[in-house]
Amino acid sequence: MFHLIFALPSLYVLTRFIWPLPWTPGVKVALAVLLLVASQYHLWSRLSSGSVFSPEFPRALVLLFNWAFGAILLLALMQIALDLAGLMALLLRGGGATPDSVRYAAASAAMLLSALGVYQATRVPPLKDVEIAIPGLPPQFDGYKLLQLTDLHISRLFPKAWTQALVERSNALGVDLIVVTGDLIDGSFDARRADVEPLRGLRARDGVWVIPGNHEYFFGYETWMSHYASMGMRVLANDHTVLTRDGGALVLAGVTDLSVPGTRYPAPDLAAALAGAPSDVPIVLLDHQPRHAAQAAARGVALQLSGHTHGGMILGLDRLVARSNGGFVSGRYTLGAMTLYVNNGTALWPGFALRLGRPAELTRITLRGKPPQVSHREQPATASRPRAHASIAS
């Protein structure tokens, strides 16, 4: 059923776009075969690695599949729009067939937009600066800079060279702290070990901290989390640490992913993550998925950093992605006294690498003790404030 669903756009393009064109039957059959092959990209991925999340083809072929898959989807949407416009014209004034020149223009636009979308998805992302006010932030942490990386999806599409470029750009920012909010990989340990190796070089004054995303559980959770730790990244899985600076303190907590129920691994547990943390200290929470942000706000978290949504990837599609993530999809939201920041992602799943209007982010967040002079989208909700194990002295 999964693969049939992804074949539907190509079938629509075949019947409503290709077949009406004045081409020879041989050309139409050849294009039909190419469309169906491209539409089954996820099936070929499954056959190559056993998982739709880890295509093990040469990078050029993964890029080509994503471009073709995106072009088919965009052309299907354009053809639907043309058919609706034709139907309206028919009902209003007798109408007529869509000119071939319009079809050719739609196909050209779909291919160009898909190429742009793949480029936007696969480049090392540009820097995005964000200021976030933290209630009760100690003055020692005013101006504290952290870098959020998320949804790296290191894979054949985002290989060692891409990871190395990301690390170099990240280290050049000179931030105080680096946090990685899940989905670092797509692939088994043996397949991805070399590709993730550059992450060992990430550097920040207060260290590099990581939580699992849902994809860590697809490819050997224990192996990957242990490997992250061996690379110098400190894991926060239902745990916290206390960052200190000249007598001021900030709690950094992290939870496991919402996809855990049904597995033998610990479910996300914010109470456990905050157990033993000092009271009256602002809490920064790392949670891969933003869906339960209201619960974090009710626990008194000051700032939650999430990813998972990839920002919705495409304008319009982001509204559907928001509906399955508690209404959160991209950017800043206010829930009572808590700020939720949903990162568009540093990369994204190689099974649908297309970004149009929702760019990837290399996100540098500056903490402030008063509201920043920047306007962001906000989503109101309610929250209250409670209590907030190792500590890091700066």
TrEMBL record:
Keyword field contains Hydrolase: yes
Keywords assigned: Hydrolase, Membrane, Metal-binding, Plasmid, Transmembrane, Transmembrane helix
GO biological process assignments: lipid A biosynthetic process
GO terms for cellular component: membrane
InterPro entries named among the record's database cross-references: Calcineurin-like_PHP, Metallo-depent_PP-like, Metallophosphoesterase_sf
Domain Calcineurin-like phosphoesterase as annotated: residue spans: 145-311
Record keyword Transport present: no
TM spans (from-to): 20-39, 60-82
One of the record's GO molecular function terms: UDP-2,3-diacylglucosamine hydrolase activity
Record Gene3D superfamilies: 3.60.21.10
Region described as Disordered: 370-394
Protein name: Metallophosphoesterase
Organism: Microvirga ossetica
